[in-house]
Amino acid sequence: MSEPITTWGAWDAATRNDPYPLFEAMRAECPVQQVRLADGHDAWLVLGHEAAHQALKDTRLSKDMVAALDEDPDVVDPGLPGPALARHMMNLDPPDHTRLRRLVSRAFAPTRIAALEPSVERIADELLDELQTAGPDSIIDLVEGFAYPLPFRVICELLGVPDEDRARLRHSFRTLFQPRSGAPSPEAVAASDMIVASLEHLVATHREHPHDDLVGVLVTASDDDDSLTEQELLSSLFQLIVAGHDTTTSLIGNGVVDLLEHPDQLRLLREDPDRIPGAIEELIRFSAPVPHATFRVTTEAINLDGVKIPAHQQVLICLGAANHDPEFHDNPAALDISREPRPHLGFGHGVHFCLGAPLARLEARIAFRALIRRFPDLALAVDRRDLRWTHGDGLVLRGLDELPVRLGQPA
What we know:
Elements: E1 7-8, H1 13-17, H2 20-29, E2 32-37, E3 42-46, H3 49-57, E4 61-62, H4 65-68, H5 96-104, H6 110-115, H7 117-132, E5 139-141, H8 142-147, H9 149-159, H10 163-176, H11 186-208, H12 214-224, H13 230-261, H14 263-271, H15 276-287, E6 296-298, E7 302-304, E8 307-309, E9 314-317, H16 319-322, H17 357-374, E10 379-380, E11 404-406
Parallel strand pairs: 1-2, 3-9
Antiparallel strand pairs: 2-3, 4-6, 5-11, 6-9, 7-8, 10-11
Helix pairs in contact: 7-9, 7-17, 9-13, 10-11, 11-12, 13-15, 13-17, 15-17
């Protein structure tokens, strides 16, 4: 096996802010290649669209890294909150994955998602009302004031998180996912402990006072027929909160920047708001709020795009590179909301396709429509080069910690 020559993920600020030149250069060199991760472990990186599409549905690529890496379990970074909340759909293979997904999917039925629309619209309008009080020339942080609290409040409503617990839980999640190197900080440990305690309290409350919400569905499954263990219950709630708000926050924040940087595309949306659903798909493809799928491990040797990957190897699928592959998308470096629709990989593919995709699309559609309608003069308050994509690890999550803008005069 050849020695990896590229360290992947230990990027400087310029690359984190704009990873696409690196993605393009690496993909052009070879769409499947070996790299060294920032933690020192080796992995195989998939950058081409065809190879990524194949890898995402290949059952020989396991999501259960602890089981698949029985020869080298130390390669798995336990991170925070740790194993107690690690047994969720993103870390499991069928049949356990199938069982959990079937249970959780009840909360994401089309009728239930559609019923959320008035609540999402109300939350969006309330947040924009609050921002508008700052005045048209004031500089406000659109992440802190809109892109983050919108999906966070929605997922809290979906899960039945009490109002009095939401601010503390929100702060804990933001602290937990701050970039770090080395051991977790005392603040991150405290945030992790708080999240675990909050989820345990949420479950206990639902057991004492049953509700017809997602937590109620999962608690019933855990209590009645033992189809869900306590660890799986808590892990699923943790994963749903993270996936239910963090990625959508980045989609909204990244998308606003891209539209402001492409005024011709923003003008099309203002002239015809019915283009917004298609624009969201293009923004997901273009700006990659989730640049890489979560890790997989080969359970046996596989061949991807002519490259043989041995068994028990970590595989990282670069969705951002795949969605910019010129072999699949014409002129992929251009933001074009009128682009002829082609299936992007922003929500993954196969059995692990994002269960919350309909909710993310609903939230993004309402968020962009409300912003564009309310603030036609919305503008960046800093130079684009001064923005910093420091939220998340830069691999699975890529977003802005803050987005300074001027709202301008409201419509």
